[in-house]
Amino acid sequence: MLNETTLTTLPAGVQALPYRREAVGRGIVHFGVGNFFRAHEAWYVNRCLGLPGQAQWGIVGVGLNGGPRGEAKARQFQQQDCLYSLTEVAADGARTVSIIGALREYLLAPTDPEAVLARLADPETRIVSMTITEGGYNIDEETGRFRLDEAGVSADLAHPRRPSTVFGYVVEGLRRRREAGLPPFTVLSCDNLRSNGHVARAAFVGYARAVDPDLADWIEASVTFPCSMVDRITPGVDRATRQALNAASGLDDALPVLAEDFSQWVLEDNFCNGRPALEKAGVQFVDDVAGYEQVKVRMLNAGHILLGAAGLLLGYRYAHETVADADLERLANAYWTLDAMPQIDAPAGFDLDAYRLRLLSRFSNQAVADTLLRICSDGASKVRVFWTDTVRRSLESGHDLGRIAFGIAAYLEMLRGRDEKGESYAPLEPTLDADDMALVNEANLAAALALPAFDGWRDMDSIALDAAVVKTRHAIRERGVRAVMQNL
Hints:
Layout: E1 14-15, E2 28-31, H1 35-39, H2 41-49, E3 59-63, H3 67-79, E4 84-89, E5 95-100, E6 103-108, H4 113-121, E7 127-130, H5 151-158, H6 166-180, E8 186-189, H7 196-211, H8 213-222, E9 228-231, H9 239-249, E10 257-260, E11 264-268, E12 284-286, H10 290-314, H11 319-323, H12 326-340, H13 352-363, H14 372-376, H15 379-386, H16 388-397, H17 402-414, H18 434-440, H19 463-479, H20 481-485
Parallel strand pairs: 1-5, 2-3, 2-7, 3-6, 4-10, 7-8, 11-12
Antiparallel strand pairs: 4-5, 9-11
Helix pairs in contact: 4-6, 6-7, 7-8, 10-12, 10-15, 10-17, 17-19
């Protein structure tokens, strides 16, 4: 098993740690230790730790979900001393394998909540980061305010010293620091959200205000919430993939991660209590993240959902299969060049067409084997985040709505869980309840347009778009996805 005792006997070709792990501190606490975080933030920090004066920036991971699955994950991290391997694969199949040691400790919050709070209140902690998904910030899309009526939040408000949500933990940690006269930590969102720093500020300050208005004022004045744009395709790792990764590397790793060789992190340099020298590890610091965010969200993420929904209906299961299909590739290129790119305010000098071509190459990476079900998971949250700006601009300008209507129609048809070959699959939609899913299957095909996925343009005149979506859903059922695509 991979652990600290095996670091001196790694198989040939596996890159060892470029630093002494015993010297690494615990300057960052991260909520949501999933594959993306392990291939992205932890990878960048791992590169920093080998630089002079950077040893203090090791990471303490926190899992919020207990139960058998959460407990098993915690055991695996502990048994491996929080070490794991990362395999990076290029589109041409070239790969590198490296050991990541940036994660110094893993805490399971339901098992030992006080350990998490103690770590948050420790002066050594200077950054608290998170990957809690696009829909995890509990913000009311209509008001922009933090929702206090969510069950976990309500429970935390009743017992703020014994939290269970990320909001409760972070705010209680900040309360303890303020009480002890310690400086606050930076709160860093690493999720695919427009203006994710502003969203995080609204969420955590909103929760804090319901607990203690004076504490909320201190957080508003003292805590920084940098905006960031993150990008790296990181698929799930099932048993077969884990076995294949270990067979290729020669390791015995219970927690291997697979990712493409591309990675990007654009960050606002707004840290209230210090930060790692991430610019030396490939992170781009800018004054305004918004332009980079718009390019990524409205091209990569929106394109992913478009290809994912249509691909699932056609019977495909992997991203690389979609761009190998001439009709789907043509659809994606038309959406990018005709709908998205002309309406994006890109950073000065940014080459959108080169970015488009790079996306096609990245999506074609067979070795990554990114599943369409992963890409489309939590689609209700993703559609609202990834498509809203393009839809709003198209409605405002009178732009052609054909491909946008097709994307929405394909997404709704995909939610029904059956492809055109009659095979079933299980879409993962954690924010949609039984009533929402009933709307998807309603005989009146306009009923599903009431789903929260489309709230981002609810205030606009979308009569023509709604009619086009309903017409396209009928056409998909009558003529099939491919026939409809060919007329776009």
